[in-house]
Amino acid sequence: MIDRSRQIFFQGKVESRDAAFSLLKKSGDAVIVERGHPRLLIMRCPCGCGDDLLINLDRRAGPAWRLYLQPRGLTLYPSYWRDSACGSHFIVWNSNIFWCSSGIDEEIDESWDVISITTENMVFDSLPENKFVEYTILAESLNLTPWETLQACRQLVRKNKASSNKKYGDKFQKMSFNSPQQLTLRGLAFWIERILGKRKKP
């Protein structure tokens, strides 16, 4: 059985598909085809099947993925799900590959990167109390990637600082004393600290 890659190996940018294919040597190798702006991400399938995946980055050419190229690595949104051949389904975040066994659910984020308290607090401060908001909208307003915003929201839910409503597709809102969920002692301690902090003189 061929081991699946857990990492993307970014090989750089080129101007044509032919030039990109020549740089793909092993599973997880990836190249951006860019002419004026990113057109394609071509990747040697990380499952080990040997196929090359053509991932559209140009909205003018049809449905497209969002590409984030940052010092921490390459990120794609949404997940990539191949509906033929090997059937690979995975998330690319900071050049790490997170394999999806079914949908993108709570079990996947167990292996995701832990978001810093600074980012978590930034997301918390941007969450409304009276309505659910999609994490992708938060990500755009905060200049974060959708995956790190989603993970920050999930961390906040676990700490009883936020609540989620999956009926609306991974939407979140700030937890308040008027929320129907019962606060845990940990969550109550957070709110007491938050309120006392706001009362302190600058």
Short description:
By secondary structure, this protein is α+β, with helices and mostly antiparallel strands. The chain has 5 helices and 12 strands.
Q: Taking Cα atoms only, what radius of gyration do you get, to the nearest Å?
A: 20 Å
Task: Work out the number of β strands.
Answer: 12
The percent range for strand residues is 25-35%
- What summary fits the major beta sheet? 4 strands, mixed
**Strand/helix succession:** EHEEEEEEEEHEHHEEH
**What structural category arises from helix and sheet content?**
alpha+beta
Distance between the termini: 62 Å
User: Could you estimate the helical fraction of the residues in percent?
Assistant: 25-40%
Spatial shape: elongated
Number of helices: 5
- Spatial order of the strands in the main sheet? 1-2-3-4
Kindly state the mean pLDDT as a whole number?
85
Domain count, please report it: 2
Question: How would you sum up this structure, described in words?
Answer:
This protein is of the alpha+beta class and 202 residues long. It has two domains: 102 residues; 83 residues, Arc Repressor Mutant, subunit A (Orthogonal Bundle). Helices cover 25% and strands 28% of the residues. The strands form four sheets. It has a four-stranded mixed beta sheet with strand order 1-2-3-4. Strands 7-8-9 form a three-stranded antiparallel beta sheet, with no helix packed on it. Strand 7 and strand 8 form a beta hairpin. Helix 2 crosses helix 4 and helix 3 packs across helix 4. It is elongated and about 60 Å long. The chain starts with 8 loop residues before the first strand and ends with a helix.
